[in-house]
Amino acid sequence: IGITMGRDGHVLVVDAEDKAVVELDASGTLITSFGQEVLQRPTGIARDPARGRIFVADTHGDDIKVFADSGELLETWGASGDLPGQFNSPVHLWFADDRLYVTDTLNARVQVLDDQGEMLHSIGRRGLFVGNFVRPKGVTLDGDGNLYVVESYYDHLLIYDKQGRFLLPIGGAGQTAGKFFLPAGVWSDSNNRIYVADMMNGR
How far is CA 24 from CA 37, 43, 90, in A? Predict the structure, then answer.
C-alpha cells in the first residue's frame, strides 16, 4: 500500500497482508523485511532521512510505529481515540520539515505531529461540503508547503495552505481526464508535480 525511499537508494514497501515493511535495493532485490512481530495492518510509510527513522501507519493498531533503519522498533506514537494525538485507522503519511502528516481516516482529519510525535494541529473536519472529509487517504506537500489530501469518498484532491485553510478542490467523480473514482494515494516530486493513484479507474 505504501512506498518510500529508504537508505542508500533502497526502496521501502509496506505489505499490509504480510504485516511487514520490505526493503528492496534499486534493482528490486530483497534486502530484508521487518515489523512482522508488532504490525497489525501497516499501510502508510514515510522516512526521516536525517535521523534514520521510518514511520509506519498501523491502521488496525490505531498508531504510528517508529522504526530505525535497521528495522528495530524505537517507539509507538498514539492510541485509539479521537483526542489530539489519538487515531482511528490512520492510513497515509508524509514527512517534511520535521513534521509528520497523518491521514487519520476514520476521524476525518489530517494530524500534524512534530518530530517527537506530539500533535501540533489538525487540518480538516468531517462534513458534507467540498473541502470537508469523509474518507481522507493520501497526503503530500508541495515545495510551498501547501497540503494535498485525497478525499476518496467524494473523488477529490483537496488543497490546503500552510495554515490549514481550504484553497481548492480538483477532480470529482468520473472517468475523463482530471476526474477520479475512489482515488487513494498522492505524491509530489521535486518539480512540484502531483501524482494521484486513481484506484478504481486503474491509472
Answer: 20, 17, 24
C-alpha distance from residue 180 to each of 39, 73, 198, 199 (Å): 31, 37, 6, 8
> Smallest Cα–Cα separation from 42: which of 50, 51, 33?
33
CA angle (165, 170, 172) in 5-degree steps: 120
165 Cβ contact list (under 8 Å, min separation 6) = none
Side-chain-facing half-sphere of 13: CA atoms under 13 Å:
14
Q: What is the pLDDT of residues 141-173, one digit of tens each?
A: 999 999 999 999 999 999 999 899 999 999 999
pLDDT tier at 198, thresholds 50, 70, 90 = very high
Supply the DSSP string of the chain, one letter for each residue: --EEE-GGG-EEEEETTTTEEEEE-TTS-EEEEE-TTT-SSEEEEEEETTTTEEEEEETTTTEEEEEETTS-EEEEE--BSSSTT-BSSEEEEEEETTEEEEEEGGGTEEEEE-TTS-EEEEE--B-SSBTBBSSEEEEEE-TT--EEEEETTTTEEEEE-TT--EEEEEE-B-SSTT-BSS---EEE-TT--EEE--GGGT-
**For residues 86 and 78, is the Cβ–Cβ distance under 8 A?**
yes
Q: What is the pLDDT of residue 9?
A: 94
